[in-house]
Design goal:
alpha/beta, Rossmann fold
Amino acid sequence: MNQPENADPAELAKFSELAHHWWDLESEFRPLHQINPLRLDWIDRLSRVNGKRVLDVGCGGGILADAMARKGAQVLGIDLAAKALKVAELHALEARTPNVQYREISAEALAQEQPGSFDIVTCMEMLEHVPDPASVVAACAALVKPQGWVFFSTINRNPKSFLFAIVGAEYMLNLLPRGTHEYAKLIRPAELARFCRTAGLDLKAIRGMEYNPLTRRYWLSSDTSVNYMFATQKLTGV
């Protein structure tokens, strides 16, 4: 399989190395397991996933894809990290998760193959790991049906996010492996909003996510200075 343009081999290798830890609740992926109920609830409140055809772009080991399938969605998870996909498939088999499948394919390639095929597209904690995030946003827009929902989550780029998401999370609290995020690849909300407008996605809601290291608790808020989520809807006629 040829390496797609919009993927960083070093990023894929990094997550492949950690693949066997995806479903270990005390591993490097603990934060993803902790925030998963929050983001799933937010997605489900805005656009009920039950009975919907859902695509999870950059699904990794399947934490969100598996949860959406258990809420009644018909889910396809895609990623370019083959080892993570194998872990996702194995977990679905062991947990007997219904209605979830996984494929090793890029969002751009799937958009050419199945345009306008999904009711909901999610792309969480992925845009900050690719060379061209605008291309992924455009592919997500192409993949969703008119009036369908596309959800993104990523990390803001500013001094506070550098302190909290990189120095704090990776070097002081050891919540994430060192080198998980590169500051230059982080994305400001205004930049993501521009990508969405260009792709024909209408921004409907924004939420921030905060963390208290003392209580080890996450919660959603209006503070988008570090972690944040976008809920967008595809405009008709696009």
